[in-house]
Amino acid sequence: MARPHSTRYTIAALLLLGIAVVILVSLGQWQLRRSDERRAILAAIEAGRKQAPVMLTPATPSDDFTPWRVAQATGAWLPQFSVLLDNRNHEGRPGYWLATPLLLDASSRQAVLVLRGWLPRVMPGQGDPVLPAAPQGPQTVTGEMNERVPRMFELWSLGGSDQSALPATLPAAEGRIPQVQNLPLDAYARATGLNLLPVVLSQTDPHNADGLVRDWPRPPVDFQKNTSYAVQWFAFASIAAIAWLVVLGGAIKRMRQRAGQGSRP
């Protein structure tokens, strides 16, 4: 007769191993999806950079707003609407991205938001960071297009006010430069009253007399790493599946042996 505790242990082992197989396979599939996503991002970057540069104007067709495509825009800076994007690090140094709109057409208030570059964070107690002056008059800016301002994970203080929220209207009170974590284009357009193109231009002009760093980070595209992780998870799942079969086979063997012993005279 089978011992009850032995049967319970066998069932528990089969259940745990079965759950492990399901979880490990799911992790492998998730890594494959991440690999596909990064492969698609890499393809989009390469495709955008292969296209001919485009001039951004109020009449630019929407089909020309291809992410990672080189673009130029000519207009006047609107520094009163500048915004600092906080928690943007460069080579391990904390700092900001400076975002300023470039007015393309004054009559229609058509503009494009430009990420002008990175500047270091000031030490606590030293006041607000000093922004480089925006050149006056018509300016031609070269950069790469993005669908939106790259987002950062936002941490909200419990029970505290949101210090990183974009003011309802710009320019901000007392002439302070808003510091935000993220900058949605629709909210920024409402605050400034500008008609923004549905793209963001990351400035790449080689000259940096303004002191801004224009070394923009690229999304992670090392899909080979995710594929390698997927292979590892599937290997662990195979080991767990083999162990499940071994436990099941041992249980069946013991049941047959006990059945044979019970049938002897």
Compile the SSE list and pairings.
Layout lengths: L3 H47 L3 E3 L13 E8 L5 E3 L9 E11 L4 E11 L18 E8 L32 E2 L4 H8 L2 E9 L19 H41 L2
Parallel strand pairs: 1-2, 3-7, 5-8
Antiparallel strand pairs: 2-4, 2-6, 3-4, 4-5, 6-8
Helix pairs in contact: 1-3
Subcellular location: Cell membrane; Membrane
Family: Belongs to the SURF1 family.
Main location: membrane
Give the oligomeric state of the chains in this entry, treating copies of one chain as homo and distinct chains as hetero. Answer: single chain
Beta-strand residue percentage: 15-25%
Number of strands: 8
Q: Please describe the biggest sheet, giving its number of strands, its sense, and whether it closes into a barrel.
A: 5 strands, mixed, barrel
| Overall pLDDT confidence | 87
The parts where pLDDT drops under 50 for at least 5 residues are 154-163
